[in-house]
Give the backbone structure.
Amino acid sequence: MHPLAAVVVAGWVLGAVDGALAGAPKSRGAVILFSAVLGSVATFLIALPVWLGATLASRVGPVRRLIDKLRAKLSPSSDHEAQLRLYAFGLAALAVAAFVSLAAAFVFPKLFDLQELDLAKQLAVVAVAVLVASSLVGALIVARGARAAVTALDRRGVLRVPWPHALAFLLFVTIPVFSTVYPFLRRYAGMLGVARDAGVGGLVSIAALQLYLALRSVPARLATRGAAAIAVVGLGAAIGVGALAKKNATTFAAAEGSAVASLGARAARWLTDFDRDGASSLFGGRDCAPFDGKRAPTRPEIPGNGLDEDCNGSDSVGRGQLGDLVRFSDALKGKQVRPYNVVWILMETVRADHVSALGYGKPTMPYLDKLAKESLVFTRAYSQSSATVLSVPSMLSGIDTGMATWSKAAGHPQMDSGPMLAERLKGKGYKTGFVIDTYLKRNFLSIQRGFDDVILAEPDNKPKNNRPRRNLISNAKASDFLAKVKPGEEFFLLVYYPDQHSPYTRHKDVDASKFRKG
């Protein structure tokens, strides 16, 4: 079998397995198919430049001699002692892999308790590199101790020396790696970033080599025909999936949840981005103009010019086309029209369907319930984003996240559009204050525009995130701000309550009987 054909088949298998584990029940078959094809795309695009480079390099004299030496070392050896050393290393690798897997299962949940996701991902890459390096070193060290056990088994005639390469590779490489790395990769795929792609590349390489070793005894003519058939089927399937992605967006998205399929989809979109505008018209890229670099989901929309620049299906309406709009404030009469003091409560990570004032069956927020009984309650309000870094600037500016302009500072997106509510009210003579935690103050710079006082809800001045209790301090700091407001002075106070965010901790002084354990 040709090495590239082995790689494509390995991608099919890995993609199909990932799809079977991740697919929705109603479309599991389609998800498996899409994942398998995307997996083969990923593995082929990884292997092709490597194979071409190796083929060209093998024609250079010194490189060819080096390759011949490596082949000689890797070829079946009659050296009994060398085979025993190989088996000892294999057993050591199994033991070390099990230990490293336990260590990773302990380290990674702790690592991603950090609110600083970018830092967590960078530390994850470092942790993976350290674990891989320590695994190799540990296997070499443990192999010395395993040598005695292997020698004892050899004396009893348990071991067959030498084993076929395909069987030895299966027992000492493929099984231990896939039984430890693959479950870990599936569990933490979304957190690993570039380390995830590196892990996928490693798994594909091992699977392809295993397949190649198992089938290299196939007759040359049959192997050539099989490789050609695999190439034709793979190309046709890739073209079909790329074209069907738009009509089957949900299925494609479920398939892309697989680590190997995600890598294939991203690579395929990059390859088919013909106008290099950052989006493809195939493989779920949503580019409505594949040969026009000025129109793509990555481009800003220009309202009222008759063009759909951002590929959302229509041109945005220009301001002059809206006509006179009815404002809510127009419903206020007489003395109701006046400057109001505003206290805005911002609670982190609270689901509306678990708020008792909004119909949840358990009294989760008794004080908010009392306030709701004497207030106007909006029951159909929706978050602008699932991410705080996007939703809070959108709330404070009144600008949809997709219509805003953004820049990056402090490692996070910052909204350049505006002005913010605090800036508007400050311009009207309001005293403005923001009770905030360390994480938001350090990283969410744009939402602090327009505030006279940015007050840390911390027990001290140490810049530490994820303190266990800060809501009570938020209350105290908010009271301090209000006490300093002069009589007759309008004010706007934004109070942030962060304790609901992870890490989720139970407190002995809080009745947790209304909340589910685990």
Summary: DSSP finds 15 helices and six strands in the chain. Residues 3-268 form one domain. The two ends are 50 Å apart (CA to CA).
